[in-house]
Every structure is written in C-alpha cells, then in structure tokens.
C-alpha cells in the first residue's frame, strides 16, 4: 500500500513505508568482473525489493480526496494506465509507492488540490522467466509459485546430456537496469546437497545452462540479452522466441 499527500504531511508519509521495507543488501555469488572478459556484471545482491509493476498487472487506484476518480486500472502493453482527467500515465517498473507519487503529482497539476492517492496491487499478469541453453524445451516459462533454479530448469524440460549442471547461470536486472549474474551448482542440488540451489527465481530472470563451461554466457548475453533495458514482458517473449527457434 502506498499513500501520497501533497503539502505538510508528505514527509511523514514518505518515511513510514521506507522504514518498513528497508533491508541491507548482501552481495553474493561471482564478482562483478567475469573471468572471460566482457560483458561485466554487477555484483549479485540477495535483497527482497518492493514489487514493481509491469504490463498485464492491475492496480487499484484510490483517490481519497476525490473518490469519484477511484478505479481499477490495467497496465497496458506500453506500460501505461488510463485514468480519468489524466489520460495515459506511465507506471511500468514502478512500485506502488512510486505510482501513487506519480499520480498525485499529475493530479496536482491544475486538477486537484493536495490530492491523496493510494495504490494497491489488484491482480498480477504472467510471471514469466526465460530458460535457455542445454535444456530440452528452452524459451519462456510461466511461474506458478515460488521456484528455485532447479525447478525452473525442470519446467523447461530438464537438462540435456551435454549440460554443465554445475555452472548454471542466473541473470537478473537491478531496479536501475544493470544486469547481475551468479552461478548455481545444480549438479550438487540433484544429489540433494543442502544449500546448493539457495536462490528463489523471480519474474523476468534469465536462466542459462551452458554446454561445457560458464564462459558460454558471454555469447548468450551478446546474442539475446545485450541492449535490452529494461527487460519487460514484450522483450521476454522476443528473447524466448529467439532462443526456441535458434
């Protein structure tokens, strides 16, 4: 939930959600500089960031100072929602708090005086990831619940015989657009070793299973991922289609 008030109450409303959601970032996984040279990745951070909305999600917008403007809104393929008196407003890749702030600012421009806006998550669109490399059914995979890297690979048909199960790569976007990378040892996970797959896959993650060594992720990055900022639903389908039909 997020609420925004223009005026003297703004500071108090800003501080409350930040205090509740603050958490320390703990880097893990491989260093930012990969041992095969370019591309270079940001250090992995195992944080639990606030949810960011993407096309296909639905939000409930409550305008407390003008209830007749409140409604549910679907985020369209272009990342915008259509709201009364505002028209189309870009909200993709923002948190509920950031969306509320954006809408409050928009309404405050010659429409409402000191608007109070609340945004809640109503429904989520497809929670898709991409699995590529040495798996039997590479492409787009829809998440139906919390999964780790091993479950994600199995959802993509499982490993091919040529897969390097000990060096599976997970790529994830940072909120600012940078790409993080870490490797997981799914060979150990298959043997039931505790902690071998200690990672929860998130929406828009990319999982790459190399043929022999992790160095192949550089080729994969250049062929499918480089230049895609941010990774959204439309790009997800484009990459998945390229991987499947390669």
TrEMBL record:
<dbReference type="Pfam" id="PF02563">
    <property type="entry name" value="Poly_export"/>
</dbReference>
<dbReference type="InterPro" id="IPR049712">
    <property type="entry name" value="Poly_export"/>
</dbReference>
<keyword id="KW-0732">Signal</keyword>
<dbReference type="InterPro" id="IPR003715">
    <property type="entry name" value="Poly_export_N"/>
</dbReference>
<dbReference type="Pfam" id="PF10531">
    <property type="entry name" value="SLBB"/>
</dbReference>
<feature type="signal peptide">
    <location>
        <begin position="1"/>
        <end position="24"/>
    </location>
</feature>
<feature type="domain" description="Polysaccharide export protein N-terminal">
    <location>
        <begin position="47"/>
        <end position="120"/>
    </location>
</feature>
<protein>
    <submittedName>
        <fullName>Polysaccharide export outer membrane protein</fullName>
    </submittedName>
</protein>
<dbReference type="InterPro" id="IPR019554">
    <property type="entry name" value="Soluble_ligand-bd"/>
</dbReference>
<feature type="domain" description="Soluble ligand binding">
    <location>
        <begin position="131"/>
        <end position="182"/>
    </location>
</feature>
<dbReference type="GO" id="GO:0015159">
    <property type="term" value="F:polysaccharide transmembrane transporter activity"/>
</dbReference>
